[in-house]
Design a protein that fits this description.
Enzyme class: transferase
Family: Belongs to the HesA/MoeB/ThiF family.
Shape: globular
Function: Catalyzes the adenylation by ATP of the carboxyl group of the C-terminal glycine of sulfur carrier protein MoaD.
Number of domains: 2
Number of helices: 13
CATH topology of the largest domain: Rossmann fold
EC number: 2.7.7.80
Helix content: 25-40%
Largest sheet: 8 strands, mixed
Order of helices and strands: HEHEHEHEHEEHHHEEHEHEHEHEHE
Radius of gyration: 21 Å
CATH superfamily of the largest domain: NAD(P)-binding Rossmann-like Domain
Strand content: 15-25%
Pfam family, one: ThiF
CATH architecture of the largest domain: 3-Layer(aba) Sandwich
Amino acid sequence: MLPEVGAEGQEKLKNSKVLLVGTGGLGAPLGLYLAAAGVGTIGLVDFDTVSVSNLQRQVIHGTKDIGRRKLDSAADTLLDINPNVNIVKHEVALTSENALAIVGAYDVVADGTDNFPTRYLVNDACVLTGKPNAYGSIFRFEGQASVFATEEGPCYRCLYPEPPPPGLVPSCAEGGVLGILPGVIGLIQATEVVKLLLGIGQTLAGRLLLYDAMNMKFRELKLRKNPDCPVCGTNRTVTKLIDYHQFCGMPKEISALEVKAKLARKDDFVLIDVREPHEHQARNIPEATLIPLGQLPQRMLEIDRSKLVIVHCKSGMRSAKACTLLRESGYPNVLNMTGGIDAYPAS
């Protein structure tokens, strides 16, 4: 019924392909409304399972889905809304090896990630493949949104040339987030995706929208393309995807499934839990030694320097900081357990 859309615009949406990186707090409202809008193909990238702590913000999942793969839960919900949508599941971690192939198959990418290595990876993959990136991020009571990697506009690196030090910015799981906040930011991202697909309106390209939920205020900052940007500038030095964990100063990683397998094989390594005692009491891996992050500098001698050391926390941020501390103190073989205990199989 909208003259700016019409039957022609609806056909455009039906023939469009959108990639959602993550089916969590931001990916949930993105997926719900893009499916309802009639986007023909929605790709989902996720390799996590639904936990009860997700449900206050990840509204695409329900209590019946706890323990299920997020991809399956999200797909069922989207197909319930629109049985004609084509759901493509990518049950992988987006990496430098697979990002170009995955991103290149879609028209628009919506970044719903919550960590810096993947944000830089998504940005660079979008720039290199020429796909616009509807970006959003959230933390506690604040959110931001923009559109990056358009032909004329800036990219994420133009805004943030360097990542923050590891562990400085906690994830939503560790730092907390108002559950309603990702709904607001995710719907802004969904709006931008639809406008990009239809070629209508003024997008957030060249603008950063800041949202303060506590005071119910929106602000806008103008962004300019950085001519010296190594990815989208005039003299580009980043012409292929790099090691983004190394770029962000993050430690080498090991999946929770691999850690479980190593424990089952009784491999010789040390597993350290850097959460707080009350977190450890609620749920723990019996083979792990509890050394809260704040106590690590004083208790480092308790950790055998000659062995492989694997560190975990709730979701991977505090353990990343712990890995950095251990490496800087001369521990040669340290790995961070991806996703923390949230990603560790319950059985």
